[in-house]
Amino acid sequence: MTTIYLDTLFLTELAADFMLLLATDRFCAAAVSWKRLLAASVVGALYSVLYVLMGDILASVLMKIAFAVLMLLTAFGGRHDLLRCGAVFVVCSAAFAGIVLAVSVCCGGFGTKQMIFSFAAAYALLGGILRFSAPRGGTVKITLRHKGRSVSFIALRDTGSSLRDPISGAASIIAGEDTLLPLLDEKIRAALAESRGQAAEKRLEQLWDAGLGHGFKLLPYRALGVENGLLLAFRVDHAEVGGREIRGASAVLASQSIATGGNYSAIVSAEV
């Protein structure tokens, strides 16, 4: 008879569910807070524990679907693309389960190391598929809203750009300052005008010294000839890319105009 330790089961399922929800969040560019992802993971882990304790009562397909829906509502409830997030979560779960089965067969067992490897492999596989199937090149209309102000412009879908917030993983939209300044109040515009041409970290420091730095941040980037660069950015209240809402998006202030003879004034990753 196999002995099942409920605390170990709970923690293992919690970690697995959190990784799957995190992958779903990244692939859908949802930028959901880690607290919501953790709460949803707790729901999934509790189901596994209750399943062991209560058996057949929770074994039906309807009960499994009900708990899965509860997890999705906890993590992504309130989003207009909830069904899309649900579909991506199902695909991530299926890929993870398939790789887990293959790894357990090859290794003759399954433990923590195998679980981490399986998730990494599933994440890499799905990430490659999504990047391959993402729109390639072309332009897209972007609308940003912030503090009651809004701007709309055309952006280039750059297949070579992968700039995202390193913490949340949310999308970043690079545009010239003149394009983004209408989103900011007059004091911030004036402060940015005075510091134009200076390094991003220096400009952020000056904003904080003037009491205007709330909401601004630095995003690290690498480019040809730039190994460890920093860009000044701020999180907008609302962003739409091609009519699709992007949660948690950041607007990146480019020191120079993006428009170089093309019909666009910003750059966004082709994966967004």
Detail the topology: elements first, then pairings.
Blueprint: H1 6-27, H2 34-54, H3 61-76, H4 82-107, H5 112-133, E1 139-146, E2 149-158, E3 172-176, H6 177-180, H7 186-195, H8 200-209, E4 216-223, E5 226-235, E6 238-241, E7 244-245, E8 250-254, E9 266-269
Parallel strand pairs: 2-9, 3-8
Antiparallel strand pairs: 1-2, 1-6, 3-9, 4-5, 5-8, 6-7
* Number of helices, counting only DSSP H or I runs of 4 residues or more: 8
| Strand line-up in the sheet with most strands | 4-5-8-3-9-2-1-6-7
Rg over CA atoms, rounded to whole Å, is 22 Å
User: What proportion of the residues is helical, as a percent range?
Assistant: 40-55%
Q: What is the N-to-C succession of helices and strands?
A: HHHHHEEEHHHEEEEEE
Structural class: alpha+beta
> Uncertain regions: pLDDT < 50 for 5+ in a row?
none
Gross morphology? elongated
Q: Total strand count, please?
A: 9
Overall mean confidence score, pLDDT? 82
How many individual domains?
2
Strand content: 15-25%
Largest sheet: 9 strands, mixed
Could you tell me how far the N terminus lies from the C terminus, measured between alpha carbons in angstroms? 50 Å
Structural key phrases:
alpha+beta; 272 residues; elongated; 8 helices
Structural notes for this entry:
The chain is α+β, with helices and mostly antiparallel strands and 272 residues long. It is 48% helix and 21% strand. The chain folds into two domains: 6-133; 139-269, no CATH class. Strand 1 (139-146) and strand 2 (149-158) form a beta hairpin. The model has no long low-confidence stretch (mean pLDDT 82).
